[in-house]
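Entry 14. Structure prediction run on the chain below.
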Amino acid sequence: MKFTILFNRHWIKTTILVVAAITVMVRLGIWQLDRLEQRRAFNARVEAQLAQPVLELSNHNVFAGLEDMEYRSVVVRGTYSHEYQVVLRNQIWESQLGVHLLTPLLIDGSDRVVLVDRGWVPFEDFTGGKLAQYDEPGTVEVRGMIRRGQTIAEIGGRTDQIPGPGEEPLLAWNLVNVAGIASQTPYDFLQIYIQQAPDPDWTGLPYRSLPELELTEGPHMGYAVQWFLFSLILAVGYPLYVRREELAFREAARVSTRRLYVDDHKPMNSQDNHTHRPA
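Output returned:
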């Protein structure tokens, strides 16, 4: 079959649609491969940080580059400033709605402050103004995991309108926007926060938790292969389909022509070839 047939008047529109579909499928396959590389890079970064020893955050020399140490274990000592505590809204614990307490911690021996996610408490305690019962006075030791601050919401999520100078502080946040929360306080915050780890000796509220990390490659390779197979099937199958249709059309045309030829050359009935004589 000559491929020029695909671009004749009869097939040109369908061919354009098929080429567009193949292009989209190939692009989707490449996108899935890109996602796979991003996933692998994320996994490698997390595994590297998980393998690091616990970071002592009391040393001034470790304050730089903390954003690149996300998911590394950390320990810090200091005093909470409950006056500037805020909450992270829409947090679920065993199907119950609540909030996470985000509390500034004044680091011992330093003028810096780090935000600590101290864990989950019921939503009713926030709306009822009962958060003071969860205050932890005095010097505390916090063990947990370094996390990056959040400024961009996930799909379907909401960002926060950071209050301007002289405006009322925002007490409930949709994201752990460290810079935004720090702007409501007189403190110099580190640009990370600590998600406090569960402690076997701590059985009450707030309930501590660490992120559930899925360090797999996910379904991206399978999706990529799927899109490439779809594009290959269409790229091979469409010309074969056109060839079959063209052959069927030509065969039908030959049959029709033959019938017309036979009809045109069919001998007349013998009865019509004789003149009837009168008796």
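Residues 72-196 form one domain.
Filed with the rest of this week's runs.
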